[in-house]
Amino acid sequence: AVGAGKTLESIAAAQEMKRLGLAKKNMFVVPNHMLKQFSKEYLEAYPAADILVADEVQFDKKRREQFLGKVKSKDWDAVIITHSGFGKIPVSPEFEGKLLHKEVKQFENLLIETKGDSLTTKMLARQLERVYQKQHKLTERTAKQDRQGLHFEDLGIDNVVVDEAQEFRKVSFATNQSDIKGIDPNGSARAWDLYVKTQHLQEKNNGRGLQLLSGTPVTNTM
After folding, report:
1. Degrees to nearest 5, angle at CA 131 with 125 and 135
2. Residue 159: its pLDDT value, please?
3. In sequence order, what E strands does 31-141 have?
4. 153: closest CA among 39, 60, 71, 59?
5. What is the model's pLDDT at position 215?
6. Neighbouring-strand partners of residue 29
7. What is the reported pTM?
8. Which of 151, 153, 157, 214, by CA, is between 20 and 30 Å from 89?
């Protein structure tokens, strides 16, 4: 519940993970309006902590690459960033492309399994088209990049803590059961971004690397 102490618990857990060698560099992803308060609470709990805060000045578009270079440069106890700022840290096109290719194969296999069921086939075809559109946008975005900057994978982050994690709910997924009430396979761009970064963390850390915090009940959707 609100006021139960999630913030302090997550800060203490991150510091202990660092002390025990379970994490080299933690990143906290917090709501935009909570950045200053969260950073203040971190230093109140651990005054000697070595933290880096992505505020409006530090993470301004003109300074963003410089800030990411700072993140990469040392093993901070914590890098604290807003929800919106986190979404602006790019993932390498190769890694995201690999996950999109995996999604395409899942849909293609489902289409083979449901051959003959015209309603389900049309539904899956629509979902597959959305994945193709993601691939197309990724190709366009990659082509527009005039230089190769730092990606999330380059920063050395090996543990991410997301506060108010309900804001990242509803990642897209492949299913032939979306006609069942409560199952909506169409996810949000924010959830997809976190999913892609989570896959990198879990590949790097043998399935570890993500904590989700929320005092908000999960809504009635899968």
Report:
1. 140
2. 96
3. 51-53, 78-82
4. 71
5. 85
6. 81, 162
7. 0.85
8. 214
